[in-house]
Amino acid sequence: MKQTLFQRLRHWARALKQEVHALWLAARDPRTPWLATLLALITAGYALSPIDLIPDFIPVIGYLDDLILLPLGVMLSVRMIPAEVMLHCRAEAQAAASRPVSRVAAAIVILVWILAGAATAWFLLR
Questions:
Q1: Is residue 68 classed as helix, strand or coil in its secondary structure?
Q2: From the CB of residue 96, how many other CB atoms can be counted at a distance below 10 Å?
Q3: Which residues cross the membrane (predicted)?
């Protein structure tokens, strides 16, 4: 069965997300050298940040940082981190990805934020 381009891109994006999570875990591991820790934190932070180096609304080049810089940062970080650390962190990231997601808990958190915002607005406008 041949995968469509969309399915392959979706699989690649999930794998990249899991690798970024593994990098975050590896950066916090004491066996990781300090330079690798710094690069892994920068890479994971950039991947998770809503702010891009080049904004996505710019045609074509807006996505180049996501398609080139992020995978390069991940690749370089992985090469600098000891293999046994990455193996352990990848297993942790995979276990975290397979945990069930609670939509009820997410709804409760969102409701708490809405209530906190409403209470703040009420307090400030009073």
A1: helix
A2: 12
A3: 34-51, 57-78, 104-125
pTM of the model: 0.67
Q: What is the rounded CA–CA span in Å between residue 126 and residue 113?
A: 20
Distance between CA atoms of 12 and 3, rounded to whole angstroms? 12
Alpha helix stretches (DSSP H) within 1-126: 5-27, 34-48, 64, 70-80, 83-97, 103-125
Q: How far apart are alpha carbons 27 and 7 in whole angstroms?
A: 30
Domain-located, residue 48:
yes
CA atoms within 13 A on the CB side of 1: 3
pLDDT tier at 24, thresholds 50, 70, 90 = very high
| Domain coverage including residue 51 | 5-100
- 3-state SS, residue 3: coil
